[in-house]
């Protein structure tokens, strides 16, 4: 597992928006060969002198719709890792460079063994998509090749998505109930959530076992030294050295926080039978029963 790098390709009319992918966690994964990232300018696939990527919507209405004759070849080339896609510069290190040759792009015809010939995954960020979840991030982190198609304006001609489904497995995804100008920032969010779950990316593999959402509850508060700061004390149970008591207290804190901020999540766990009588006692009291 994790022997071959995960490949991410992003198609956008604003490649500079994806610059943060070079930094911090993702940049490190790229440098360590765990991750390959290709950022592609959609305008490379235009054929007219104005490099137009959008046109007015059939049926009328405000805004512009992104053109199928540009997106179609872009998605075909990126799936095949050919054409203008093969000439795109990869983000292969955390520093800006020109030295990396386009051959750092995996040749689609090269021998990758007979493992996994499945279609690449195409993610289309859109406020009209299904809500992005930790479960999606986990699923995507096990893929070999994930492509993000960033739309702007009022979206992409729907036939692009329908046609892409012949080459890709396609998911239209939203990062929340608000409207962004385009998909670029949503891709940064989704790529980070996904890449941190790739084995070897996080220093501590155990650390995402306890993440918020990994067990369906929000994570409770954390504390470090000093024990007293600005007259505020660290909860004494954390200094008790009693691992069982600490774990019980942490679960109670997670339950109370989830009840206050995300009652929907708590009710989902109740329905799944994952909230015990002891859990309900803490929720009823608003604290750990032994406090
Ligand atoms: Cl994925 N894209 C855009 N443009 N707006 C959004 C979104 C995505 N998710 C929430 N709002």
| Ligand inventory | 6-chloroguanine
- Quaternary structure classification: single chain
H and E string: EHEEEHHEEHEHEHEEHHH
Q: How are the strands of the largest sheet arranged?
A: 5-2-1-7-6-8
Q: What's the count of strands? A: 10
pLDDT below 50 for ≥5 consecutive residues: which ranges? 92-116
Helix content: 25-40%
> Strand content of the residues, in percent?
15-25%
State the distance separating the first and last CA atoms. Answer: 45 Å
> Could you say which overall geometry the principal axes of the C-alpha atoms support?
elongated
Tell me about the largest β-sheet.
6 strands, mixed
Structural class: alpha/beta
Rg (CA only) = 23 Å
Number of helices: 9
The chain-level mean pLDDT equals: 88
Describe the structure.
Its EC number is 2.1.1.228. It is found in: Cytoplasm. Keywords: Cytoplasm, Methyltransferase, S-adenosyl-L-methionine, Transferase, tRNA processing. Homodimer. The chain has helices at residues 24-31, 68-80, 83-87, 134-140, 158-164, 184-195, 243-261, 263-271, 277-285, and strands at residues 6-12, 35-41, 54-55, 65-66, 90-91, 121-131, 145-149, 169-174, 228-229, 232-233. The protein has 291 residues and is α/β, with parallel strands linked by helices. It has a 6-stranded mixed sheet with strand order 5-2-1-7-6-8, with helices on both faces. It has a two-stranded antiparallel ribbon with strand order 3-4. It is elongated. Mean pLDDT is 88; it is low at 92-116. Residues 125-127, 129, 174-176, 178-180, 182-183, 186 line the site of 6-chloroguanine (6GU).
């Amino acid at each position: 597992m994790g022997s071959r790098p995960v490949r991410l390709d992003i198609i956008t009319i604003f490649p500079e928006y994806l610059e943060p992918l070079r930094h911090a966690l993702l940049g490190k994964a790229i440098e360590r060969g765990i991750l390959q990232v290709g950022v592609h300018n959609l305008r490379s696939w235009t054929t007219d002198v104005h490099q137009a990527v959008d046109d007015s919507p059939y049926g009328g209405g405000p805004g512009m719709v992104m053109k199928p004759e540009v997106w179609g070849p872009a998605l075909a080339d990126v799936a095949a890792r050919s054409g203008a896609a093969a000439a795109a510069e990869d983000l292969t290190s955390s520093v800006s460079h020109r030295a990396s040759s386009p051959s750092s792009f995996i040749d689609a015809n090269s021998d990758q063994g007979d493992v996994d010939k499945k279609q690449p995954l195409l993610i289309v960020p859109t406020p009209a998509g299904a809500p992005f979840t930790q479960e999606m991030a986990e699923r995507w982190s096990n893929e070999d090749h994930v492509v993000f198609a960033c739309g702007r304006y009022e979206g992409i001609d729907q036939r692009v998505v329908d046609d892409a489904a012949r080459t890709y497995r396609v998911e239209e995804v939203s990062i929340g109930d608000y409207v962004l100008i385009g998909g670029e920032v949503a891709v940064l969010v989704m790529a980070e959530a996904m890449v941190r779950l790739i084995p070897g990316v996080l220093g501590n593999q155990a650390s995402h076992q306890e993440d918020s959402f990994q067990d369906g509850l929000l994570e409770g508060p954390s504390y470090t030294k000093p024990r007293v700061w600005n007259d505020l004390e660290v909860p004494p149970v954390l200094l008790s050295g009693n691992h069982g008591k600490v774990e019980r207290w942490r679960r109670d804190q997670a339950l109370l926080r989830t009840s206050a901020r995300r009652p929907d999540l708590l009710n989902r766990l109740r329905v799944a039978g994952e909230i015990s009588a002891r859990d309900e006692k803490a929720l009823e009291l608003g604290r750990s029963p032994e406090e």
